[in-house]
TrEMBL record:
Pfam families: PEP_mutase (PF13714). This is Carboxyphosphonoenolpyruvate phosphonomutase-like protein. Keywords: Metal-binding. It comes from the Bacteria. One of its GO terms (molecular function) is catalytic activity. PANTHER family: CARBOXYPHOSPHONOENOLPYRUVATE PHOSPHONOMUTASE-LIKE PROTEIN (AFU_ORTHOLOGUE AFUA_5G07230) (PTHR42905:SF16), PHOSPHOENOLPYRUVATE CARBOXYLASE (PTHR42905).
Length: 271
């Protein structure tokens, strides 16, 4: 079974799985070492690690694909690439970038419906029909080459300054499913009840990023198939670094020196 087949099998079995997200080879190898069956890349983590803001127009796509390529080559488990809005303005570019993700060994890739990232606080969104054309282009490009490749279609509608509209999210995800997506994804959903409404509206697997107050057991109960951690592992690591640096001058400020993974533990992970 190749990685595309293995990744599709995770989505087709009737069980929830957790998919942590990596931003570099080391984080990917640690996730694999911890026993997880698949990895998502985090576009935010990749950007932050290179000194850019999330989805920065200043970051070169070659840097993004180079990071994804290194993550894929670092592990043996399936990797799905966060390709933001396809990293593309045209349908032809969407097709090209999804074929590229497949060619470097990704088992899946995601496409979202943001049209303009210039202002991270108020992103602009493709109309549903245009967003569907892009999902259709992505799906058609890779499924013609490998039917097992998982195309995840994502709406970021709830992450911007829009009014919280469950109806809009459902409408977009249902349309994306009809356009050929294999998995649907809507970060920013606030409650288990809303997630259940979305899940019941779809026939394909639903991926979620949990928010505070949710539990894996409850998400499993309502039929969620995939949990993504997004950029949360990267942010947790940087939170720990920030905390250590802020407390360095405290009487116990050097206690962190005994709390990290040992060099031998890390050496074992990176072999």
């Amino acid at each position: 079974m190749n990685t595309c087949q293995a990744f599709r099998a995770l989505h087709e079995r009737n069980e929830l799985f957790v998919m942590p997200n990596a931003w570099c080879e080391g984080s990917a190898r640690l996730i694999q070492q911890m026993g997880y069956a698949s990895i998502g890349t985090t576009s935010a983590g990749i950007a932050y690690a290179k000194g850019y803001r999330d989805s920065s127009p200043s970051m070169d796509n070659e840097d993004r694909f180079a990071a994804i390529d290194r993550i894929v080559r670092a592990v043996d488990i399936p990797v799905t690439a966060d390709l933001e809005n396809g990293l593309a303005k045209t349908l032809e570019q969407v097709e090209e970038h999804f074929r590229r993700a497949l060619s470097i060994g990704c088992a899946g890739a995601s496409i979202e419906d943001i049209s303009d990232y210039s202002d991270p606080n108020t992103p602009l969104y493709f109309p549903i029909a245009e967003a569907c054309d892009r999902v259709r282009a992505a799906s058609g490009a890779v499924h013609a080459l490998d039917a097992d490749f998982i195309v995840t279609a994502r709406t970021d509608y709830l992450l911007g300054a829009n009014e919280y509209s469950l109806n809009e999210v459902v409408a977009r995800l249902v349309a994306f499913e009809e356009a050929g997506a294999d998995c649907l994804f809507a970060p920013g959903v606030r409650s288990i009840e809303d997630l259940e409404v979305i899940r019941r509206s779809l026939t394909k697997p639903l991926s979620v990023i949990p928010v505070s107050g949710m539990t894996i057991d409850r998400l499993r109960t309502i039929g969620i198939r995939r949990i993504s951690l997004g950029s949360s592992l990267f942010r947790a690591a940087y939170r720990q670094i920030s905390t250590v640096l802020l407390q360095l001058e405290n009487p116990d400020g050097l206690d962190f020196l005994k709390s990290g993974l040992s060099l031998s533990q890390l050496d074992d992970v990176m072999r």
